[in-house]
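Lay summary. Proteins are chains of building blocks that fold into shapes, and those shapes determine what they do. In this project we predict the shape from the chain. Here is one chain we studied, written as its sequence of building blocks.
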Amino acid sequence: MVGSGLVVVMGATGRQGGAVTRALLADGWPVRAVSRRPDRRAARALAAAGAEVVAADMEDPASLDRALAGAYGIYSVQNPMTCGLEGEVRQGCNVGDAAARAGVRHLVQGSAGTGQRGTGVGSFESKLDVEAHLAGLGLPVTVLRPMAFMELMTDRAFSPAAGVWHVWPALAGWDVRVPWLSCPDLGRVAARVLADPRRFAGRALQLASDVRSLAECREIHTRVLGRPPRRFPMPVPLFERFAPDIAALWRWTRTAALDVDPRATLALVPDAATVEAWLRRRAGRPRRPGARRGGR
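And here is the predicted shape, written in a compact code that computers can read:
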């Protein structure tokens, strides 16, 4: 199925969408990259790589109908950091409705969390609301659930000095074991899944290529880069004021059973990066041009 039908990628200039777009192009798929602002540098880079870049807004069903015309598949992801939790649900449902109207044959939804209610993490609950809506549309849907992106440790737009290396361990402890995955490897997983709907439609996949504690990540960072990660001692209450959902997520990891087995992800992408490989690869690399804040 690789390369045999048009795939539409929502949020194509974000981290997830950009990674999925590049992975699909590398596998020979025709890709329609959707952005609210196709004049942005990141969108122009995708066009130069071979994607068809179109303007659409997940709040505008008519624009979604135009973007999904003739599509075989779609990768859908929403960013609650920019649209809020209610906006995430609304946009995810809008995309699903448009995919149903267009007769899309495989929808891959970028999600997160464990798939269980009651975590107290708003951005997990909102994603479950989107998934529930998609399940009622009769579409072939696959849900991808990465837990933590390795970019948290390296991308300045995530403010790692105040987050990963200070607030997270303050809320959960240095020994909390975290399932990690890089955005490029998420993109490659999405490409494999889109190529095999018979195998993956109707499934939800927990994704991780490595499981490491925050203390282990700190040690690896120190060994690979020759220095410990820089920390900014932001007061936890201040962080909670400006990023309450992230704080709730990190506090939840203190007691959550994050027992994702990397073998399932590695079966799809055998060379997916470990934390050490990611840090070696990223050492000294500048932030990707056009990357957005917010992490989606």
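What the prediction tells us: Residues 119 and 256 are 9 Å apart (CA to CA).
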